[in-house]
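Case 414 in the screening queue. Each case pairs one protein sequence with one candidate compound; here the compound is flavin-adenine dinucleotide. For every case the pipeline is the same: read the inputs, emit a complex structure as tokens, and attach any notable structural observations.

Predict complex for case 414.
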Amino acid sequence: MSASGHAGKHIAVIGGGAAGFFAAITVAEAKPNAQVTIYEQSQRTLTKVKVSGGGRCNVTHQCFDPARLVTYYPRGGRELRGAFHRWQPQDTLAWFAARGVDIKAEPDGRMFPTTDDSQTIVDCFRRSAVEAGVQLRLGQELKALQQNPEGGFTLELTDGSSASADKVCITAGSLKTSQLSAALESIGHTIEPLAPSLFAFNIRDERLAELAGLAVEKASVQVLPKSKPQSGPILITHKGLSGPAILRLSAWEARALHAVNYRFDIAINWLGDAKEQPLQERFARLRQTSGKSFVRTKVFDAIPRRLWERLVAVAGIGPDIVWSQLPKAQETALIRELIDGRFAVVGKTTNKEEFVTCGGIRLKEVDFKTMESRLVPGLHFAGECLDIDGITGGFNFQAAWTTGHLAGLAMSIA
Ligand SMILES: Cc1cc2nc3c(=O)[nH]c(=O)nc-3n(C[C@H](O)[C@H](O)[C@H](O)COP(=O)(O)OP(=O)(O)OC[C@H]3O[C@@H](n4cnc5c(N)ncnc54)[C@H](O)[C@@H]3O)c2cc1C
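Case 414 output:
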């Protein structure tokens, strides 16, 4: 007899988001006689899936090599490596295809439903959950969790009711300070401190004024004094800088930037990996071959004209200066602006397309083959409640699908 008094096991999934639905459907399909219940605190499920990817849901990423896939996770990559060998983006695609949902790749590797509508994914989950017999309890927040001496758990819910479960899977998303986080700590788990990841940088600097909307495709940026640089597109916004290279940097440096309250300096190379000496040689050639051309006339395809004009002006080069007249000091200043532009960041702006939190259940406390707690048998974790986060591009959902699948499978077996 199960903890709930049912002949089949009762499996409680806490949180009706991406990971919760994936875990619940997996266990319900693998173990049809189990009673599987999702407890969701709000009146709505899958709300983040619905708004994700700007309403299109960036379901996963077109990267099918687990060793490469893990390099997109500032936290959790090491632990996910084995997990991705068991469930990776190809498995996700096959899972959706088997349910009639086709997914396409964009040139940068992000993958979306062919409908370009997140509702397709939401509907797929809701339908699959109903077909698999998953029960849904809305408006029921888990506030306490007790291990029963005879095995299983008692769940205390905010509506005053309680429930028994043989196994529990926590899929509650980012673990803010709450009754649930206190309950998890009281049974021995550690919650790594939370900090936002994936955000744009606020910068007030004349060099960027009125250039909002310009993008440089192959720039590189690092946090000073010496973070690892991140390369890729940088977008100038009304508030400062955004774009893939900035978001990636925000993810890798999430903890360090949180610690300095989002006030720090960055260095930008607008030409990606260009170095000083080749630029000096290029400018020396320009002095000879285009001596009568204005320096302010665009030189590099990679740099938008208005940004180039701004950098030239900032280097103290007047609009009438031609290459043959360019003083050495101004040339040096221009090269500095091009490859080592220094900017002071004074805050952050949430990325509307996707934002996540780093921090959560300490990964050492979880067995990544089963997503089961190493401290509390029968308790599993999946999704963002773990101290895992990826850069933008579909990696966060993939982590939710993978951990949700492994937790669901393990709960169906034991
Ligand atoms: C605007 C936005 C866009 C995004 N776009 C993308 C994207 O395109 N691609 C991508 O890969 N990632 C994206 N992400 C990140 C992605 O949404 C998350 O990584 C993912 O939703 C995590 O899934 P989860 O199930 O762990 O948590 P969630 O989706 O947050 O679900 C957790 C659920 O648990 C419920 N809950 C919490 N506490 C309790 C409790 N005590 N009792 C009961 N229920 C509880 C919550 O109400 C919620 O419904 C985006 C995030 C945001 C905010």
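Case 414 observations:
- Residues 199-350 form one domain.
- The pocket of flavin-adenine dinucleotide is lined by residues 14-20, 39-42, 47-48, 51-53, 57-58, 141-142, 171-173, 180, 353-356, 383-385, 394-397, 400 (CB under 6 Å).
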